[in-house]
């Protein structure tokens, strides 16, 4: 999957085989894993935040 992220990062149109489509849908349906670093990042105040 890491290689797929690198290859697909700049593409806008994706053509998949039936098997690849099924695998893609399965990846989307997997439960979200806890990402402590992202949680910390989004909890911090943004430099673009104009309130407060």
From TrEMBL:
Keywords: DNA-binding, Repressor, Toxin-antitoxin system, Transcription, Transcription regulation. It comes from the Bacteria. It comes from Mycobacterium tuberculosis. The lineage of its organism: Bacteria, Bacillati, Actinomycetota, Actinomycetes, Mycobacteriales. This is Uncharacterized protein conserved in bacteria. One of its GO terms (biological process) is regulation of DNA-templated transcription. One of its GO terms (molecular function) is DNA binding. Belongs to the TacA antitoxin family.
